[in-house]
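Hello forum,

I keep getting stuck at the same step: I have a sequence, I want structure tokens, and every attempt I make locally crashes halfway through. Rather than fight my setup again tonight, could one of you with a working pipeline run this one for me? It's a single chain of 72 residues.
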Amino acid sequence: MKRTQILVKEEQHNYLVQQAEVNNTSISNVIRKMIDEKMAETINKQSQGGIRMAELAADGPADHKHHDEDLY
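Reply #2:
Ran it on my machine without issues. Output:
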């Protein structure tokens, strides 16, 4: 693992403390879990966008100027 340091707003810190207490874990673990969930969500969206682009490409040539919208 890599060590990092961040500054959070007071209400964010309070939320992290609360979540750590509720889940009987550390603030660090709460943050890692939140990052993992966001990463999975992003990867899923990008995969779906890639599939959509492939489907459009399979349909034949077209003007796909907005391919970023499908990916992100």
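The first helix runs from residue 10 to 22. If your local run keeps crashing, start a new thread with the error log.
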